[in-house]
User: Which sequence fits this backbone?
């Protein structure tokens, strides 16, 4: 699976989970989920190195 696909799926799932947390009025959990997703995607991107894009 390409790096951008992994990043997209990670963010999509985390945003969905954060929306559900907000519906439960749990803004702290929503913030935690989104921050964790951001860090995970940054790590995926940085660890991918200087390779060709794999859209």
Assistant:
């Amino acid at each position: 699976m390409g790096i951008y696909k992994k990043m997209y799926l990670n963010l999509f799932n985390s945003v969905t989970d954060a929306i559900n947390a907000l519906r439960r009025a749990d803004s702290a959990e929503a913030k935690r989920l989104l921050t964790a997703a951001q860090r995970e995607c940054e790590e995926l991107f940085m660890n991918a190195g200087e390779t060709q894009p794999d859209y």
In short: The two ends are 10 Å apart (CA to CA). The mean pLDDT is 90.
